[in-house]
Specification:
Cell_Envelope_Struct_Comp, seven-stranded mixed sheet, signal, SLH_dom, about 900 residues, mainly beta
Length: about 900
């Protein structure tokens, strides 16, 4: 079946070395609805409504009555006749001869399309209203004042019945903007022309010799649309783009399996280039006389989704894609699982569905997961493209061998075909051989511009990377630059990313939404002075000089720093004369000492001040200046901390104050606030490293009279404390009972977890050497902003804990009594503290477990696993439907 519609032509076509350059019609219509853009383009193609010389359409502008007279005449197929009447006198007193609009108004009046006002004027420069637009459009179709009812209700009602006003918000007396005029005129072109029948006193629809209704487009424009074809191939040859199409409708096979040329003025509805037509379903405006396509309306859409969110029901011939169901089209081509011999979707892969406007899937493809190349420069003298890294996509090995002087090369960038000189440094390119009629096709995917903060990394197959809270798979071939994009000599792994955590990462996703290329913004410089606790002396040289340390900083993270020994000479093992007591005999710097330092541009410590020596958890701190090393006093500073070392004797959490008494001094009250940083060197009984203590926990500890002497380093400025350094077992655990481990990963070499704690997701560094297992539920606490599994640790492991003998089936639910009955007759009581997680989707496709707020989330016939508390009530319930 053929349907007549109007199609657009582009105002100006730009030629480049690759041939015709397709482009969008107007620069200011991109924010309009798809319907409005299409209508504007179609009306422009027929020269019914034109744009402005500056390339704009000005969709919000209004239209004058004279301008609309011209529109009506062109829609009526009388455009050329208007010139004949431009010199004629008119019946309207305000329409002079020889004006640009004179012929259009005269002709429109003679055809009955327009009428004047009772005073004999036409008012050519007055703005036309919605009611007047609708009236003229229907008169062009053949309707007249014989419509029942008073004006303008008669015309507006009929226009509504014909769907002419369906896509606009009509206000009869308001001035009609150009965009809405285009939409209504476009709809009028698809309406059937009529003629008043005096005998029957009705409007007869006009039909052709085959008894088909004649639309306004059929009558006045010699074009027709071939509907619902799929583009199977595209090529460029001898200055002409051509497409090969396959019919999906047995009644419309005129172009089936044919190569058809695109006209030089052909425009694609979404503004894409011919290279973007692969597998698209299109309606084709084909000029039989010239045997070329004037316009392509893309009617299909795509859905690109991870494999874990796909299902196919071969009984119903139905796809479920990201929870939306689609029928399989009768003309479906290819493989339902995206590739030959596949029997299911790979949860780690990405698939694309091509969907018709009937919401049927007609093609499924598995997305390419290779890594593109990175441009260095184009050498015009050598006709050669130089790349920084070639990646592994397509013809990657041939890139630097392409001779742009003799090989035919098509380059697409930013919706245009460009010349090689327009390629820029760090453009990301996909290179294919023998494509679109060219020796090589280069698709520029853009620059390395997506941006976020590097939060975490998890090794695996595939590895995963967390950027600004979002997890992505990492491509098999990954490229990392740590020098601003000059060289990509690293990979996306925890080792190469070690200095980039919490820094800005610019990155590229490949066609499977995997991170494949990244540039780290880490510049190796901390900038200002850094305070911290030494958590490890990592390296020393043969003479005992410290060359690398690990420090916990004020944000609770640990970082490793090399020591610039030309500026700082500090020893880990020296003679007895430099002994500063405690367990650190013979060491100038050791674990749990409190320091401040700065680094150079290479991230090496070039200035170091020891603020307080920790005495191995024995209680008091040592003033470094009292134990200074005579032979290295010029190479690092032993701070005179006598005013800051002493004991905390009280805390006031109502007023945010502590009482501090320095050695040999009197007790003084100092203010603490959210800007006060509290460092806690690990107690001797705790091997889990230093921690940052919250203000509230510090105040509780300071006020606790059951705690013995509270030794501390308290650095204040006036009456306000800036830094506190302690070495004590400050209890700052927040018991939130159970949490599901969503992900277990590494960050800067440390173990981290992302958890779901009663529906709230958060990420923490792990306190301890054992990494929690992803997917399991743990009894845990947060200590020093670190995740710590309690003694009983893992409570539920979805793979090992549950079996046919350990789960039960729910047979009844009493929500009022918070009771569920199981298939063995057991009644399980819930209370306000019962934690419920649903693992049904975890067992189904690996999705994250879902926290459930109440007993309402449990249904009859659910399979559950549960654990009881000391009172015999359910402490934890896990729904385990879909367990195999």
């Amino acid at each position: 079946m053929k349907k007549t519609v109007v199609f657009l032509v582009i105002a100006a076509m730009m030629l480049c070395f690759a041939g015709t350059a397709f482009a969008a019609t107007f620069s200011d219509t991109g924010d309009l609805s798809k319907d409005a853009q299409a209508s504007i383009a179609k009306l422009n193609s027929l020269e019914v409504i034109n744009g402005y010389p500056d390339g704009t359409f000005k969709p919000a502008n209004t239209i004058t009555r004279a301008e609309f007279a011209k529109i009506a005449i062109i829609l009526g197929g009388l455009g050329q006749s208007a010139d004949v009447l431009k010199d004629s006198t008119t019946k309207f007193s305000d329409v002079a001869a020889n004006q640009w609009y004179t012929g259009y108004i005269n002709l429109a009046a003679s055809q009955g399309y327009v009428k004047g006002f009772p005073d004999g004027t036409f008012r050519p420069n007055a703005k036309i209203s919605y009611a007047q637009v609708v009236t003229v459009l229907l008169r062009v179709l053949g309707y007249n004042d014989n419509l029942p009812g008073a004006w303008p209700v008669d015309y507006i009602a009929k226009a509504g019945a014909l769907d002419i006003t369906e896509k606009v918000s009509l206000n009869a007396n308001a001035e009609a903007p150009r965009s809405d005029v285009a939409i209504m005129a476009d709809a009028t072109l698809d309406a059937t022309v009529v003629k008043w029948n005096n005998d029957t006193e009705s409007f007869d629809e006009q039909k052709d010799s085959d008894d088909n209704e004649i639309s306004l487009l059929d009558k006045n424009f010699s074009t027709a649309v071939n509907e619902d074809y799929i583009v199977t191939d595209t090529k460029y040859d001898d200055g002409v783009w051509s497409i090969k199409v396959t019919a999906t409708d047995d009644e419309d096979e005129a172009l089936d399996e044919k190569w058809i040329d695109l006209s030089q003025d052909c425009v694609i509805s979404d503004g894409s280039l011919p290279t973007g037509l692969d597998n698209a379903m299109v309606d084709i405006l084909y000029n039989d006389d010239d045997e070329e396509v004037l316009y392509l309306e893309i009617t299909s859409t795509t859905a690109t989704v991870d494999g874990e969110d796909w299902e196919y029901n071969d009984t119903k011939d139905q796809f479920t894609i990201d929870d939306t169901k689609y029928d399989q089209a009768s003309y479906f081509d290819g493989y339902v699982y995206g590739e030959k011999d596949a029997t299911d979707y790979n949860s780690d892969a990405v698939y694309r569905a091509f969907i018709s406007d009937d919401d049927e899937v007609y093609l499924v493809s598995k997305r390419n997961a290779d890594t593109p190349a990175i441009v260095d420069e184009y050498d015009a003298d050598a006709n050669q493209l130089i790349v920084k890294e070639e990646g592994n996509y397509g013809a990657y090995a041939d890139i630097e061998d392409i001779d742009f002087g003799s090989d035919s090369v098509l380059i697409e960038k930013g919706g245009k075909f460009i010349e090689p000189k327009d390629l820029a440094e760090n453009d990301v390119i996909y290179v294919s051989e023998d494509s679109y009629g060219y020796d090589y096709y280069i698709e520029v995917a853009g620059g390395i511009t997506q941006e976020g903060t590097l939060d975490g990394f998890e090794a695996g197959d595939p590895a995963q990377i967390e950027i600004s809270g979002e997890w992505y798979d990492v491509a098999d071939i990954s490229l990392l630059s740590t020098d601003g994009g000059d060289e990509f000599d690293g990979q996306l792994n925890d080792s190469d990313l070690s200095d980039s955590y919490d820094a800005t990462l610019k990155y590229v996703l490949n066609k499977s939404n995997q991170v494949c290329i990244a540039i780290s913004s880490a510049d190796g410089s901390e900038g200002s002075t850094v305070y911290g606790v030494v958590t490890e002396v990592t390296d020393t040289n043969a003479s005992g000089k410290i060359t690398k340390i690990k420090v916990m900083k004020k944000d609770g993270t640990e970082a490793s720093y090399a020591v610039d020994t030309s500026d700082v000479e500090v020893y880990y093992a020296v003679g007895a004369t430099t002994n500063h007591g405690g367990t650190y005999a013979g060491k100038e710097l050791d674990e749990d000492d409190f320091i401040k330092f700065s680094v150079n541009e290479d991230n090496e410590i070039d200035s170091l001040t020891i603020l307080a020596y920790d005495n191995g958890g024995t209680g008091d701190f040592t003033d470094p200046s009292a134990e200074g090393s005579d032979n290295v006093i010029d190479d690092y500073s032993d701070s005179d901390s006598a005013d800051y070392i002493g004991t905390i004797t009280g805390g006031d959490d109502d007023n945010n104050k502590i009482t501090f008494k320095k050695a040999g001094g009197s007790a003084v009250s100092y203010k603490v606030n959210d800007n006060t940083i509290i460092f806690n060197a690990a107690p001797a009984s705790d091997d889990d490293g230093a921690e940052i203590v919250s203000l509230s926990d510090l105040l509780d500890w300071a006020a606790d009279t059951t705690v013995g002497t509270k030794y501390a380093y308290v650095q204040y400025d006036g009456s306000t404390v800036d830094y506190i350094f302690i070495h004590s077992d400050v209890s700052n655990s927040t018991d939130v009972s159970y949490a599901a481990i969503l992900k277990s990963y590494t960050k800067s070499g440390d173990k981290w977890v992302k958890i779901d704690a009663k529906g709230t997701a958060a990420s923490y560094e792990v306190n301890g050497s054992q990494a929690p297992e992803a997917g399991s539920i743990y009894d845990y606490s947060i200590t020093g902003n670190k995740f710590k599994a309690k003694t009983n640790g893992e409570i539920f492991d979805p793979q090992d804990t549950v079996s046919a003998t350990t789960y039960d089936k729910v047979t009844a639910i009493d929500k009022s009594e918070l009771t569920i009955t199981l298939d063995d007759g057991t009644n399980v009581m819930l209370d306000a503290d019962t934690v419920i997680y649903d693992y049904s989707d975890w067992y189904k496709d690996g999705s994250d477990p879902e926290y459930c707020k109440s007993i309402s989330s449990i249904s009859k016939n659910d399979k559950i696993w549960y654990a009881l508390d000391n009172d015999g009530n359910a402490d934890l319930i896990v729904i385990v439907n879909n367990i195999k």
